[in-house]
Amino acid sequence: MISIKSQGDIQKMRRAGIITAGALGAAEKALRPGMTTKELDTAVRKYITSHGAKPSFLGYGGFAGSACISINDVVIHGIPGPQIIKEGDIVSVDVGAYIDGFHGDSCKTFAVGEVSEEARALMRSTEESLYLAIKMVKPGVRIGDLGAAIQKYNEDNGYSIVRDFCGHGVGHDLHEDPEVPNYGKAGHGPRLRPGMVIAIEPMINMGEPGVRILDDGWTTKTVDGKLSAHFEHTVAVTETGCIILTAPEEETAKGMH
Hints:
Blueprint: H1 7-30, H2 37-50, E1 54-55, E2 67-71, E3 74-76, E4 90-99, E5 102-111, H3 117-136, H4 143-156, E6 160-161, E7 167-169, E8 176-180, E9 197-200, E10 203-205, E11 211-213, E12 220-222, E13 228-230, E14 233-237, E15 242-244
Antiparallel strand pairs: 1-4, 2-4, 3-12, 4-5, 6-10, 7-8, 7-9, 9-14, 10-13, 11-12, 14-15
């Protein structure tokens, strides 16, 4: 069942979203060649807890970190640990913050130092497709409209869409209805309504769309070892458009009252 949030709920979710955005900012500030993914995870956890929130991912389904840290050909769900981050890597940091009964959820892929132009182009296409979909969000638009736009944009740029995982509703639970695929047919799927809150999160591969999950049950890699990028925002549908709940605090969230 798709839950509809009140204006008060959405204001609480904006607070969770601001902390989530700040945690990504802390990760970007800390990120450097030679550090471990565990050290980067610690920076995220410290930021979230210092702002009175709890890391949404820590312990979720048994997950061992406060952030999913996924390097190069790891699409999602990279477990923080001893892996060294190197110059030229691209690193996806997926974080969530839980406060006042609600979650925020957001992800960015960062370049570590000088990365290849091919990597930058993949990151650019993925991020641009996220904002393309966000600009479409308003009452009456269908979930399939968003997926179709993300799919076309990235496929036109020569990339493939991860189909094994998708975006989702967000609220009291980290993952709620509806599913928000990054592919689909325009005119299909549930219609967006004011008060719906969804995470839109294109996961885009440089090569084939297929993925494989490692024996740890979490780490998800591209089947061909080529790069993957991941960008995500949590957005709330308003009467006229949407609010990006996980925008940084200094960015005005459209439609907030």
